């Protein structure tokens, strides 16, 4: 049995980045960039007006004849005399012979002439070519998280494809003779299967969509066969149930039989003590406790970390926050606890009813409060670590 | 021109909840529940062992003959005598005549008999029927955000469908003769269109997937026609560009022509001053500034709020955090500022280069720092409001 911090280190070390793939920019939200990107163009690609107004060549003159119009998207580069100006709009091309734009609000127009009332400095309101970024300059560094802003930036440079780290394909393996699919009749001694549905949406919440669910009865042969198949075809295997020490818990045996290396089994924590983590080749395996609330706690604390690591996230992206606890708390168990809590911007409250079998409290919690095994008493307003869970 | 806080209030008041629809539980992640849910069953549906061990009828006896097995998913309710026990596993049915389970670690087994070494109290390790939740008891209140835990909870009660507030269908209307689709040749005076791609992924980031993009040239007739179509078919219309006061900015005129009520136009802020917000029937309309960084700022500050409101979120779900600012900041503009920043768990740093035309900084920011128009100086370590942006 190991401590929480050891478990997290082992997971972190053993969850390797996925291979790289090329992806369309408009589909890259939430991926991690696997290359450094340099600009293929100057942006803006031409000298551009940053205002609606009049473009002219700066001199002592304050009165101009209007001889043309430059609207965004049009292009004209005619010669314009010193005493001439053109009507110009935001984003429009500034002809080479002009250097300054006066805002329309600072002019007085009289048919085809304008008088400047408030004169700008020379070169004002003209964005130079490449002012935002020059060709070959750095756009985004390798390992950047792709956000809407990053996608907008890439798109405005005309970049349509980038290399990112793949997201893992995940198998969910649900074990248990007692499980009945929701919508079916609930026979005596049976319960509705909920872990596969819950884990699937939790995975979707992390941005993972290649997920397949398998059900096996509590039977060693079937468990071995299903796991063998999953280990060869998926990057991450999540097994739900069948991992405690009861006679009918075949999962650990079936994993070892299939050549999975045990990296840890059981953590000094509550809930979620019987958690198995292992690896075969590059596939990582979690065998989660069967009861829903324990399984979900382990998902947020451990599986989440592993998934993010495989997707190329580094620690800076991992979600841990500090909050002042509203309710003093005593931990006399000698185990690390993860308590369902509700946090706001300042503090966190321990919710009532922490039983590991129950999702009731979990469904209204927004964080798990971490109480290390060696912390006996946490006083009111002391800072604690919270793992956000939605 | 109005202030930021007024704009937020107007948006909040005018963004109405979408109609209700029935949805499969496994597809309901991120929706807001539009009904209160009561449990259709007792959970657990039967008296259940919470341990691997032996079930017996509590008495002065400490030695028992093992006469059967109850495994999770099986059901047997035979009569068992006082000096008899059965092998039982976690989650398994406890026959009516038995009341206590002893952990296997606290027994000594000798072929078909066991001796209890450490005797539990009566009724220990047996979960009573309905211990987690009883039939007809409250499962989830109306207006709860559907999280993985909520989905797990509903699924374990056999609930397969729930009523939620719909998510809005969103039209993105991009205006501008200067815009060229990425991947095409960039003619003189043209730039790559990026706002539609960026707004689309930003919407996806909020969980909205019914999005359609329209492009119109700077032409009043086409703009009117496209907007008319969008106003009749979508719940939210986002127009990008064409909203400043230049001669070629037709959007406002086209909106008013189509019967959109102007709720505000222009905010005393930077970036994003020329922001239009209006409404026709239940469709809300934002006309965003054309430049990408301003458009995205307005999205996170204003559109995000409106979308969440339509999806049934209330203020408790809205994302605003407080951080200590690392860099003192002076605001002499008289305008409210939204500065691109990078925050960690404790503090926030104002990033360099805040120009509204540039997405460079935005792409590496994770928050917008709000500097109200009437705050002239913010000292180092003073608390500021940050809007997280990814």
UniProtKB/TrEMBL annotation, chains A, B:
Belongs to the MoeA family. Residues 171-309 form the MoaB/Mog domain. The keyword Magnesium applies. It comes from the Bacteria. Keywords: Magnesium, Metal-binding, Molybdenum, Molybdenum cofactor biosynthesis, Transferase. This is Molybdopterin molybdenumtransferase. Pathway: Cofactor biosynthesis; molybdopterin biosynthesis. It is an enzyme of class 2 (transferase). It comes from Flavobacterium myungsuense. The gene is glp.
């Amino acid at each position: 049995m190991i401590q929480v911090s050891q478990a997290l280190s082992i997971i972190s070390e053993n969850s390797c980045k996925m291979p790289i793939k090329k992806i369309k920019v408009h589909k890259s939200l939430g991926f991690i960039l696997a290359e450094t990107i340099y600009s293929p163009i100057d942006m803006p690609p031409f000298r551009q007006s940053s205002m609606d107004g009049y473009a002219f060549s700066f001199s002592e003159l304050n009165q101009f004849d209007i001889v043309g119009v430059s609207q965004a998207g049009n292009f004209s580069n005619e010669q314009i005399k010193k005493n001439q100006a053109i009507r110009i709009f935001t984003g429009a091309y500034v002809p080479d012979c002009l250097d300054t734009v006066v805002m329309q609000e600072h002019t007085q127009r009289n048919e085809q002439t304008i008088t400047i009332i408030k004169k700008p400095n020379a070169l004002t309101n003209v964005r130079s070519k490449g002012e935002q970024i020059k060709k070959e300059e750095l756009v985004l560094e390798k390992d950047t998280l792709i956000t809407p802003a990053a996608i907008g930036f890439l798109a405005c440079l005309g970049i349509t494809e980038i290399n990112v780290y793949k997201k893992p394909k995940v198998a969910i393996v649900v074990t248990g003779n007692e499980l009945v699919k929701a919508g079916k009749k609930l026979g005596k001694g049976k319960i509705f299967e909920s872990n596969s549905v819950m884990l699937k949406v939790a995975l979707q919440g992390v941005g993972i969509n290649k997920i397949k669910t398998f059900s096996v009865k509590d039977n060693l042969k079937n468990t071995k066969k299903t796991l063998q198949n999953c280990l060869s075809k998926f990057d991450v295997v999540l097994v739900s149930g069948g991992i405690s020490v009861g006679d009918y818990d075949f999962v650990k045996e079936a994993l070892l039989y299939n050549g999975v290396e045990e990296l840890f089994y059981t953590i000094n924590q509550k809930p979620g003590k019987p958690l198995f983590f292992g690896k075969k080749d590059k596939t990582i395996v979690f065998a989660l406790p069967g009861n829903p609330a324990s399984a979900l706690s382990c998902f947020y604390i451990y599986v989440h970390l592993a998934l993010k690591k495989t997707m190329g996230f580094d620690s800076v992206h991992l979600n841990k926050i500090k909050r002042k606890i509203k309710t003093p708390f005593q931990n006399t168990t000698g185990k690390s606890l993860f308590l369902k809590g509700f946090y706001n911007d300042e503090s966190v409250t321990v919710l009532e009813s922490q039983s590991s079998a129950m999702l009731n409290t979990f469904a209204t919690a927004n964080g798990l409060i971490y109480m290390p095994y060696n912390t006996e008493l946490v006083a009111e307003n002391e800072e604690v670590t919270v793992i956000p869970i939605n």
